[in-house]
Amino acid sequence: MVVPKVIIDTDAGVDDALAIFMALAAHKRKEIEVIAVTTVQGNTEVHNVNTNVLRILNTAALLEIPVYSGATKSLVHQWTHPGERFHGSDGFGDAQLPSLPLVTSLLKPQHAVWALIELVNKYPKEIMLAALGPLTNLALAIRLDPLFTSHLLGIYMMGGNTTGLGNITSSAEFNFMCDPEAARVVLDETLIPIHLTPWEMCLNGVKIPYSQREKMGQMKSPAAELMNKIESNIIKTKEFANWITCDQLAVAWLIDSAKTQHLNTNCKIDSDVGDKTSDGSRLVSSTSSCFATVELNGNLTRGQMAIDHRELMGRTPNLIIMTSLDEHLYLQYLRMAFGGNFEKENE
């Protein structure tokens, strides 16, 4: 059985961290093979993202996985970080962590965008891409190689919104708002459907009480120890009614699809809302397929994902949007990320 290769493109905030730990746990279980991590500005500046990714890999004893530093600025308008308290200024909740020596020497010299292009051309239709941050690296890769996405086995992305509900502005989701032009390029020019986890799914699609998070944090593992430190402010302040997971959802979907071995990015996408997921995933129980783009000019709606609900644009659907999932199975993936065992489902 061929194990799908995975590249993680990330801005390495606290939710990215647990999502990466989840992917690395699946890597160790030989369910996927993480062949690279590429970094991008977003939750924090790229030099912090690089440090955070290397800290995760060091914690997981997987520093052999190459890390490529990527875009430090958005495509057109420079993104100004609002100083929001969810990730802190360094992306890791401003936790007091020991310094990581020789960070620069552990990074690969090649730019992330060139690494993405070279890897997908080296392994055509073998790589699943987890896009967990702003889409600057991906947009640049598409501009340099318009066929870039056609060489991928699948794209699993956290970003955008389906109802105009924002989390960084009143109407835009963070990853898309960090670089709306990049999000527009990727959505408009992708050559395969994108498996999208929108903000609404993160906020309302699964309800995980903080008590459940605290229970998972009691596991005796290096991953749990690091996550408890960098999420301490989130757990303490309880900004949301439940513990919010974002990038973890996208990565769990990717892993579950890889495990079922039914991923087919060349299939015809049904445009009916609420269809069962088309990639064989047991985790995601229903999806919505549609064409969507990104608003760039609205004074109040810049960065918002605009869905062609009535199919007036005449465009082929470019998104497969997660609309519901098996919460019990998802909790197993989260426990695995914290260092616990993945309980096999009864067949």
What do you see in this structure?
The protein is an alpha/beta fold and 347 residues long. The protein has a single domain, classed as Inosine-uridine Nucleoside N-ribohydrolase, Chain A. Helix content is 35%, strand content 14%. The strands form two sheets. An eight-stranded mixed sheet has the order 3-2-1-4-5-6-10-7, sandwiched between helices. Helix 1 packs parallel to helix 2, helix 1 runs parallel beside helix 12 and helix 1 packs across helix 13. The two termini are 20 Å apart. About 4% of the residues have low confidence. It comes from Cherax quadricarinatus. Belongs to the IUNH family. This is Inosine/uridine-preferring nucleoside hydrolase domain-containing protein. One of its GO terms (molecular function) is hydrolase activity, hydrolyzing N-glycosyl compounds.
Shape: globular
**Strand residues, percent:** 5-15%
- Gyration radius (Cα, Å) is 18 Å
In DSSP terms (H or I, runs of 4 or more residues), the helix count works out at 13
Number of domains: 1
- Tell me the span between the first and last alpha carbons: 20 Å
Q: Secondary-structure blueprint of this entry?
A:
Layout (H helix, E strand, L loop, with lengths): L4 E6 L3 H15 L4 E7 L6 H14 L7 E2 L34 H4 L5 H11 L4 E5 L4 H9 L9 E5 L15 H5 L1 H10 L4 E4 L1 H7 L4 H7 L5 H9 L1 H6 L9 H14 L23 E7 L1 E3 L10 E3 L11 E7 L1 H11 L10
Parallel strand pairs: 1-2, 1-4, 2-3, 4-5, 5-6, 6-10
Antiparallel strand pairs: 7-10, 8-9
Short description:
This protein is α/β, with parallel strands linked by helices and 347 residues long.
